[in-house]
Amino acid sequence: MSARTAPRREHDAIIVGAGHNGLVAACYLARAGLDVLVLERNPFVGGAAVSRRLYGEFTYSNCSYVCSLLRPEIIRALELPKFGLQIIPYEGGCTMMRDGGHLALYDNHDALRREIGRHSKRDAEAYERYSRDVMRQCKFIKPMLMREPPDPTSFKPRDIAELLFLARRFHGLGERRMADTLRFWTMSAADFLDEYFESEIVKAHFAGSSIIGTALGPRSPGTAYVLLHHYMGDIDDTVGAWGFARGGMGAISNALAASFGASGGRIRADAPVARILVKGGRTRGVVLEDGEELAARLVLSNLDVRRTFLRTMDPQDLPPDFLRQVRNFKIRGSSGKLNIALDGLPRFPAIPPESPCTRGDMHVTDTIEMMERAYDDWKDGRWSRAPYIDMLIPSQIDPTMAPNGKHYMSVFVQYCPYELAEGPWNDTRRRAFGDTVIETIARHSPGFKDLILHAEIRTPWDIENEVGLTEGNIFQGELTMDQLLFNRPIPGYAQYRTPVAGVYLCGSSAHPGGGVMGAPGANAARAVLRDLGRKAAA
Q1: Tens digits of per-residue pLDDT, 367-381?
Q2: Domains in the chain: how many in total?
Q3: Most exposed among 282, 304, 315, 457, judged by the fewest C-beta atoms under 10 Å?
Q4: What is the CA radius of gyration of the chain?
Q5: Would you state the torsion angle of the CA atoms of residues 260, 261, 266, 269, taken in this order, to the nearest 10 degrees?
Q6: How far is residue 327 from each of residues 170, 330, 461, 470, measured CA to CA in Å?
Q7: Cα(291)–Cα(274) distance, rounded to whole angstroms?
Q8: Rounded CA gap, 421 and 526, in Å?
Q9: Could you tell me if 116 and 210 lie in one domain?
Q10: What confidence category does residue 235 fall into, taking pLDDT thresholds of 50, 70 and 90?
Q11: Structural domain ending residue among the three candidates 467, 485, 514
Q12: Residue 395 pLDDT
């Protein structure tokens, strides 16, 4: 029989997009015995969790840059350390002040408490209460991350059981903590921090987590939850800890791809999907941009909710009201990224020599007011003149990232608009944005600009076009109360299933949201396996 007349092979499942969530879903399905094919439009896997060599022997964590949220349950179940994943914890962090001072951060609780006491004795005492209250919220929310959210309008036994689970956990907080939790989920980070601290530098440091990747300012309602989202990580049983993936963030994706391959799965790179095929209300597979059709019983989309339903599906295959809700789902670009190759280690006079606080996050925004003004710039359609910066030099801890004697710096920037008021992004405006960020760093590091060998500058527009994230939004949608739990991405469709039979969402637009977490992919895979009557890996 000729190849032309040979019957098409039908896969059990096709995953659209080899980002980390797509790979996690693929691993679970392959381990359950399904024939799984992953399709990736780029020549490499990982989506936003990639390591790339774009200049000499330097390795850049091209988009996402730190690890903490990746669920330990997934690491264990998929045996990722066996496939090369190693997470190196931070040794510290700091926020530098315009007057030459600094607030150092240490992974030792008592040392950090003493450091806060340098700025305010009252805040040092308040830090105990703050840590306790934040951890209480983490403990309340963390069990929900790896569970399918219930549909509150459903009378199915599983949904009723999940609602009862939530009710029991909520009731178990007690009357006072129940009220605190409701306030916390809806209040601004600025208001939340005002309840604990008086020092501007202390509040500014903790507020940073509330705005990263978010088109909101620290005084916007809902940002207290975003702050919490960044505390829910876990490294070596240390809740809230952060670290570097040895070899860059691509090490996570590469370990997932290796685990998937060991279970018999297959990845096709350079295979952009143009359309998810639907016939009779059920998916039949996908068609690639070159016209090739691939048959499958199931299709899982790792693309965000807008990209999935507005760009890769025929509107006639979807209910009009559903499409309207998809268009209203908030995905707003607000983040930029610089990857910088350095000829040596920068010097920061505000920080004592050999201090461990340079071996973690370093920030240069020392008041909440500065963050709010930076957000105002974004609202006006321009990149922030005094941006919030989260910069790290992972090559101090991970020598694989740069040649001997050289260093790699990752710089995450908030706020940078997807669309500029003055016109589209071009090379001139991109360089001007990069210059603003570099000048901001140089004000705290004499000689910094002289060390720069190469700088990759990425705007939200670049991230969208290179990675496929709508507007470059790193969470695939805002993490606000109207877009969480059974509202994520759309009420009635928060359980990874879609209006088309056999089509599932497995990316960060689904519960529990963004970050290199893997939970949406794992949860989606379990939903698929339940629908097929199969069991997932432990």
Answers
A1: 999 999 999 999 999
A2: 2
A3: 315
A4: 23
A5: 90
A6: 32, 8, 19, 12
A7: 8
A8: 44
A9: yes
A10: low
A11: 467
A12: 96
> Among 467, 497, 518, where does a domain finish?
467
Asked whether the CA dihedral 505, 509, 511, 517 is positive or negative, the reply is positive
What is the pTM for the complete model shown? 0.94
Res 239: pLDDT: 58
Phi-psi region of 468 (alpha: psi -120 to 50; beta: other; left: phi over 0): left
d(CA 259, CA 28): 10
Q: What is the DSSP string of 406-443?
A: -EEEEEEEE---SSBTTBS--HHHHHHHHHHHHHHHHT
Pairing between strand 293-301 and 10-16? parallel
Amino acid identity of residue 5, one-letter, is: T
Residues 6+ apart with CB under 8 A from 65: 249, 337, 392, 394, 410, 412
Same domain, 194 and 280: no
For residues 481 and 457, membership in a common domain is answered with: no
Q: Render pLDDT for 450-493 as a digit per residue (tens, 0 to 9).
A: 999 999 999 999 999 999 999 999 999 999 989 999 999 999 99
Structure tokens, 523 = 């949860």
Q: Does one domain contain both 307 and 347?
A: no
**Bridge partner list, 341:** 408, 454
Residues 357, 339, single domain; the answer is: yes
What's the gap between Cα 210 and its chain centre? Answer: 13
Q: Which CATH number is 488's domain given?
A: 3.50.50.60
Residue 174 confidence (pLDDT) = 84
Section 77-89 average pLDDT: 94
Beta strand residue intervals within 200-314, DSSP E: 234-235, 238-239, 243-245, 266-268, 273-279, 282-288, 293-301
User: Could you identify the residue written with the tokens 């005094």?
Assistant: 386
For residues 95 and 203, the answer to whether their CB atoms sit within 8 Å is no
Q: State how far the Cα of 180 lies from the Cα of 177, in Å rounded to an integer.
A: 5
